Amino acid sequence: LKLTVLGVGSASPQVDKNPSAFLLSIDNEYILIDCGEGTQYRLLENAIKVSRIKTICISHLHGDHYFGLIGLLSSFNLKGRKDSIALIGPEGLLEILNIQFAAANTKLNYELNFILNRNSEGKVLLDRIRFKIESIPLVHRVQSTGFLVTEKEGDRHIKAHKLPENFPIPFYKKLKDGKDVIDPLTEEVFKAKELTKKGTPKKVFAYCSDTAYYPEIVPIVKGANLMYHEATFLKDLEERAEMTQHSTALQAAMIAKASKVKKLLLGHLSSRYKSSDEHILEAKESFENVEMAIEGAVYDII
Ligand SMILES: [Zn+2]
Ligand SMILES: [Zn+2]
């Protein structure tokens, strides 16, 4: 599980930042989380094979989180994409896209499977063989939802040297699932515990998009390997954070500490801040393993 940061800016445009966009890779598949203006150019710059994007998650309908979506979806069409896309987003998103497609007389040559996200607590939005995506309800001026992406534990590894020659293939599958196998002819028992070892452990990434300080999410994000949390303001502007329903760096760190995540990434700083140093200093008052999310950087989720 790897995270590529494509954009960490906030609502006001800045020369040296792009609006929100994050790319998770699981095996050979990508999940795009938020799609601010220009995201398709960031994908090009980072040499991302866009055909591998199978899932797109949109946190909320403020422009800095989805104005790049119509461009990206239209470009998929131009390039003749055939593979379907699962699009997770709030009420209204599909209608907006449909108006834009209709006005341009665009007929998609791929399937756009829309999954409506109603901000319900910890709901599973998508469940695939290798990963699942759950919602993290947030508090913002419009419905806003974070995403908890869990890479599932890998199959158990077979200790092949301990198995007899010509061991039947269907028995392998059973052992990998952790089940014992009894040979029907010899009644010999092959114990999964002895003949296999644990697969790769599950990994969790928590994406907490625009939100006021909201400790109710702690049980949902608990123990995540990596958490991204917005930190629009510093604590001296806590009142402004509350008014605009954003968080301070300290509040983001308090969520990270309470939920015992392994590492915290901050982003979405207000354009009033020219440096992120103070955000990091402030966050470290509560949580040590914190970094600013850097555009173009790739983070291994371990
Ligand atoms: Zn925003
Ligand atoms: Zn917002």
Bound small molecules, which ones?
Answer: zinc ion
Order of helices and strands: EEEHEHEHEEEEEHEEHEEHEHHEHEE
Sheet-strand content, in percent, reads 25-35%
- SS class: alpha/beta
Straight-line distance between termini: 8 Å
Note the main sheet.
Answer: 7 strands, mixed
Radius of gyration: 22 Å
The average pLDDT value, as a whole number, equals 95
Number of strands: 18
Number of helices: 9
Q: Indicate the overall shape.
A: globular
How would you characterize the overall build of this protein?
Helix 8 (249-258) packs parallel to helix 9. The radius of gyration is 22 Å and the shape is globular. It is an alpha/beta fold and 302 residues long. The mean pLDDT is 95. A 7-stranded mixed sheet has the order 6-5-4-3-2-1-18. The longest helix is centred in the N-terminal third of the chain and has 11 residues, at 93-103. The chain is built from 9 helices and 18 strands. Bound molecules: zinc ion (2 copies). One zinc ion binds at residues 10-11, 62, 64-65, 210, 268.
